[in-house]
Design brief:
With 243 residues, this protein is α/β, with parallel strands linked by helices. It has a single domain, classed as Phosphoglycerate mutase-like (Rossmann fold, 3-Layer(aba) Sandwich), CATH 3.40.50. The protein contains 10 helices and 6 strands. Helix 4 links the parallel strand 2 and strand 3. Helix 7 crosses helix 8. The two termini are 26 Å apart.
Length: 243
């Protein structure tokens, strides 16, 4: 992504009702996550609304406001963006891009780790053999599949004349954009992902130094802590629950 974009903000949506339901299912040992809404329509929880509003603080305090925002089409991402800019700053161009949607889980959708092991033991075995990056559940996507569509997105985004851009999306999207821009291969990405979590309503910043992209803040939630908004951490594998 060699372009006029010099700084990229990557924001994960605030806590969703899907996050809450997935955590409850993991804690109680359930096989299925109790969620009636399709993934694209899952809204923010009340905590997620509070987190999204707190995102306005770093946007208002930025030395240079993003001139363009690219959003996942999913409701929780669009709500997060709308709430974060309620009191400014104004972002001139806002684009919805389906390539920023969450990873699709296919037959594993709405299953906990216990549920995958009980209902699709062969998929659990395939994942253990292939690894997180290349395992594609039937009807779903691997991380490599998501990376492919994000390469397409980044190529198009590089045509923007904005200096600072904002992406509001999902945890796997944030992680994979970082990996693509800083040049992580599979082993390095998996090592990084095992040690780092993309928190709800966090901000990750990358800067282009003229030669390549450098990772600055990763999953920064200081704005939540400063404004008294709850920092949420949800247990369980992101491969088998809504992000």
């Amino acid at each position: 992504m060699a372009s006029t974009v010099q700084e990229l903000w990557l924001v994960r949506h605030g806590e969703s009702v899907g996050n809450v339901a997935a955590t409850q299912a993991e804690v109680t040992g359930a096989e299925v996550i109790a969620l009636d809404t399709r993934d694209a329509d899952v809204p923010l929880s009340s905590t997620g609304v509070e987190q999204a509003r707190a995102l306005g603080a770093p946007l208002r305090a930025a030395a240079e406001t993003p001139q363009i925002a690219w959003l996942s089409p999913y409701v929780r991402a669009q709500q997060t963006f709308a709430l974060s800019v309620e009191d400014g700053p104004a972002i001139g161009r806002v684009l919805i891009d389906e390539r920023l949607r969450d990873r699709e889980l296919g037959v594993l959708d709405l299953l906990t780790r216990r549920g995958v092991a009980a209902r699709h033991p062969q998929e659990a075995e395939r994942r253990a053999h292939l690894g997180k990056y290349y395992h594609r559940p039937p009807g779903g996507e691997s991380w490599a599949d998501v990376a492919l569509r994000l390469r397409s997105f980044l190529r198009d985004a590089s045509d923007s004349d904005a200096r600072v851009g904002l992406v509001v999306a999902h945890d796997a999207v944030v992680m994979l954009i970082v990996a693509l821009l800083v040049g992580m291969d599979e082993p390095r990405l998996l090592q990084f992902a095992a040690a780092h979590t993309v928190l709800n309503a966090s901000v990750t910043r990358l800067r282009f130094d003229g030669e390549g992209w450098q990772l600055g803040d990763f999953s920064d939630v200081r704005h939540l802590e400063q404004l008294g908004a709850r920092v949420t951490v949800h247990p369980g594998s992101p491969d088998v629950r809504p992000e």
